[in-house]
């Protein structure tokens, strides 16, 4: 029974979401609200479970250090009470302090020294790799020059700045194109799911019939 | 009314054709050739070079919004790890990732291997629950694994799992393949100190492609899996044809359609402009 009901429910929610492409409707809104609601509920469950297994249970078994974490967590909640809001700053300060310290200690080795080391590696044997490195170097320098506002882009600086602008256009176009591919993957995934999962085609056919009926009725 | 006029008024047929084109390659596979890039083959080669029993850590930060793009590549590596007889620690730093942790165990065949008696949970692989804290969690898990988690996803104590006796930090791990929808910078800020003993591979969304080269070029990563294309490449290399390859067929067909729409859109715009001009002249 579960093997039949599950694909029917998932398939119905998928076609309900897709139905926005036809027109705004109740089915789409139900699917949208369900998605947000279920996800929020699941994250809440995971959060509560996490606190229980990692803080509450060890505390009950005598690990008193957990009290510090629990107290800081409770202080965060005081953000919701206007008169006690200032106490939540202690937790916030610890969170941001630890976060900043972690990032700063890691950034030197992970994001400055290692990439610089990579910059000094030989560009590779074949001509194409060498050409790619040359283009990358020109792109990096001209793009930085485009954002160099201390000098007005005139004379020899103008074509350099313009080249940088064109590299920005190309980079943004490439990122936008990649995002389209990424987002299209959802449809590919669902198409495979509809065709590979038993009974999943039923909501799809029902949706087609409903849409055809709606078109005929409004004609 | 011409087709151009109709499409100017109603764009829904465009969506309908797109949907149909997404379904067709699944029904009729085109098996278009996929060029294998060195960042994928490097990853495959590294996993191939590992010895049976080596430990692999696979953080699975895949949520509902990224499952379609990240999961095929992640799954292909999980299957390869199983086939190579490596030991796996699978976990997540994402609150919704635990669903995919459990799904991977099933889809990659680890659960079936347990059912057949070929693998033992706790000895050959361990599934850890969501570890909160993002960058702080990355740092702590890599530095002192046992202080970060106390139980697995089934509620067993970490001390009771034999595999975890051999995993105390990333120094004990040969390979880390992490799938994440976020930029890899926080991961590599905390994990770069381990690159001399541990190979890293990032299973990435397609639009991080360009920025991935910073970490690849610097030697911080062995390689990366570039979205579904990377997944398709890895599936070919590992010999596990799966969803990634079908994705590539669908992607190729819909891209041709997108190019056709681009030309059509420009033709419609050009036609509207010339018509407006002629009306002004008249």
Outline the structure in words.
By secondary structure, chain A is mainly alpha-helical. Chain A has helices at 2-18, 26-60, 66-77, 88-119, 127-146, 157-196, 201-218. The longest helix of chain A is centred in the C-terminal third of the chain and has 40 residues, at 157-196. The two termini of chain A are 40 Å apart. The model of chain A has no long low-confidence stretch (mean pLDDT 89). In chain B, 54% of the residues lie in helices and 12% in strands. The model of chain B has no long low-confidence stretch (mean pLDDT 92). In chain B, strands 3-2-1-4-5-6 form a six-stranded parallel sheet, with helices on both faces. Chain B is an alpha/beta fold and 282 residues long.
Write the layout of secondary structure elements.
The complex is a heterodimer of chains A (219) and B (282).
Chain A: H1 2-18, H2 26-60, H3 66-77, H4 88-119, H5 127-146, H6 157-196, H7 201-218
Helix pairs in contact in A: 1-2, 1-7, 2-3, 3-4, 5-6
Chain B: H1 3-9, H2 12-27, H3 38-49, E1 55-61, H4 67-83, E2 87-92, H5 98-107, H6 110-115, E3 125-130, H7 135-143, H8 145-148, H9 162-165, E4 175-180, H10 185-191, E5 199-204, H11 209-217, E6 223-226, H12 227-238, H13 243-281
